[in-house]
Write a structure and sequence with these properties.
Elements (H helix, E strand, L loop, with lengths): L7 H11 L1 E2 H14 L9 H20 L4 H8 L5 E7 L4 H16 L3 E7 L4 H4 L12 E6 L5 E5 L4 H14 L4 H14 L2 H10 L2
Parallel strand pairs: 2-3
Antiparallel strand pairs: 1-3, 2-4, 4-5
Helix pairs in contact: 2-3, 3-5, 7-8
Length: about 200
């Protein structure tokens, strides 16, 4: 029997039906960090170490992240009704640096719903939102909360970090461990402001 390919809207609806809150995702990541494991089908020491690091990053950012009064007002002024569905995994460093900011937006405006699903459990949906042909995460899909119609997508990194990555790849062919450390330094200096500006554009 021939099966019909599911539409993006159907895949989003399926994703949302199993999605968890950011708080529950934090609990999930912490559990993996404590148990020496990670999300996804492949469990390795390296991926667990990233998971443990990301748990600490998110815990710190949840406490220390600050948005300017102007940014907060722009978030509160949003009158639409949007759901941000984010595909990620516990070991993803870019997700740990950006998801706490997404939650700040949702905290400030009840019209923004923030939900999380795991990439490797939702590959059909992930494949609708590839970045340069790859399953790069985090990937934020902004949808109309009533219809699940896609409004915009974002990720895997804020604009300035994306430019840094693209420039480095063009010059060196691939990302080295040293560059990845430099990228984390950039995130720490940026303090979420680049991500916040990108996310504001999704609300326009």
């Amino acid at each position: 029997m021939e099966t019909m390919e599911k539409t993006t809207t159907q895949l989003i609806a399926e994703g949302l039906s199993q999605a968890i809150s950011y708080h529950d995702y934090r609990v999930l990541t912490e559990t993996h960090a404590l148990e020496g494991t990670n999300t996804g089908p492949e469990v390795t020491e390296a991926l667990h170490n990233y998971t443990m690091l990301n748990h600490k990053r998110m815990k710190r950012l949840d406490k220390t992240l600050k948005l300017s009064d102007d940014v907060q007002q722009q978030i509160r002024d949003f009158k639409g009704d949007v759901t941000w569905l984010v595909l990620t995994e516990s070991w993803c460093g870019d997700a740990a640096q950006t998801m706490p900011i997404m939650q700040k937006f949702a905290d400030l405006n009840p019209n923004i719903t923030f939900k999380v699903i795991l990439r490797d459990e939702n590959l059909d949906l992930m494949d609708q939102f590839l970045y340069n042909g790859g399953r790069s995460i985090p990937r934020l899909i902004a949808v109309n909360s009533d219809t699940n119609e896609v409004i915009a997508d974002w990720g895997p990194r804020p604009s300035e970090a994306t430019k840094m990555v693209n420039d480095y790849k063009e010059a060196h062919g691939k990302l080295t461990p040293e560059f990845k450390e430099d990228l984390q330094v950039w995130y720490n200096k940026d303090k979420g402001q680049g991500t916040a500006q990108d996310l504001l554009k999704l609300l326009k």
